[in-house]
């Protein structure tokens, strides 16, 4: 099918937390205590809402399956020509720099992705995509857990480079990601349709501590 992306996809810098809040409508997280090795004031960046609309084409899907030597399952009634729109953002980030090529600390917040469909329910589209031959296992796992209301967040990660584990941030389920070389860590969680992330050249305990003490 076809994918059309609209909206502001390039973040830009703003002068302070008040400006970030005004542009995004989000509460700007405040880091109460910076970890060792991180100092100074952050740079504030914001980005607007981005939408991606996918139009399903049974003909194109069948062609792609045939080229891969596979047979396409019959699409459910109404799926051909239906559209799924994914909305994400707006969002903001606080970035503390470091002498290295990666930021020392990033705290980000955004409106979590949500899905809307026309023609058939989103769940019908999702379940059909999951039935397609050749869908990678990691993609299927993320798609299977994604709900349309923004309460869950798909996190595709390269398993050969990053390990994931479960945790809690102030009672909310969270996912901790750590690079296999132990140089970077992040924690991501969704609360009431808003996703927050803490990441940087830190370890898992440090990002969890920062996350748990955000104001």
General description of the model:
By secondary structure, the protein is an alpha+beta fold. 21% of the residues lie in helices and 34% in strands. The protein has one domain. It contains five helices and twelve strands. The strands form two sheets. It has an eight-stranded antiparallel β-sheet. β9 and β10 form a beta hairpin. The radius of gyration is 20 Å and the shape is globular.
What is the compact description of this entry?
This protein has 215 residues and is an alpha+beta fold.
Keywords:
single chain, 215 residues, alpha+beta, eight-stranded antiparallel beta sheet, 5 helices, 12 strands, 34% strand
Q: What strand order characterises the main sheet?
A: 2-3-6-7-12-11-10-9
- What string gives the helices and strands in order? EEHEEHEEEEHHEEEEH
Instruction: Return Rg in Å.
Output: 20 Å
**Which structural class is indicated by helix and strand composition?**
alpha+beta
User: Please, how many helices?
Assistant: 5
Poorly predicted residue ranges: none
Largest sheet: 8 strands, antiparallel
Please, what is the average pLDDT?
A: 89
End-to-end Cα distance: 43 Å
- Structural domain tally: 1
Strand content: 25-35%
Taken from the alpha-carbon principal axes, the silhouette is globular
């Amino acid at each position: 099918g076809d994918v059309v992306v609209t909206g502001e996809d390039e973040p830009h810098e703003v002068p302070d937390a008040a400006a970030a809040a005004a542009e995004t409508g989000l509460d700007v997280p405040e880091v109460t205590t910076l970890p060792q090795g991180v100092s100074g004031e952050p740079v504030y960046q914001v980005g607007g809402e981005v939408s991606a609309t996918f139009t399903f084409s049974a003909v194109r899907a069948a062609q792609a399956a045939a080229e891969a030597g596979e047979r396409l399952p019959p699409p459910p009634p109404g799926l051909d020509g239906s559209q799924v729109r994914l909305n994400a953002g707006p969002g903001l980030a606080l970035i503390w720099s470091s002498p290295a090529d990666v930021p020392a600390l990033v705290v980000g917040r955004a409106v979590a992705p949500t899905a809307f469909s026309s023609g058939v329910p989103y769940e019908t589209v999702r379940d059909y995509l999951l039935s397609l031959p050749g869908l990678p296992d990691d993609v299927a796992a993320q798609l299977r857990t994604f709900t349309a209301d923004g309460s869950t967040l798909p996190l595709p990660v390269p398993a050969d480079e990053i390990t994931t584990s479960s945790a809690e941030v102030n009672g909310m389920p969270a996912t901790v990601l750590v690079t296999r070389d132990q140089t970077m860590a992040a924690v991501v969680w969704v609360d009431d349709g808003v996703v927050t992330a803490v990441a940087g050249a830190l370890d898992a305990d440090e990002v969890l501590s920062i996350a748990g003490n955000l104001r």
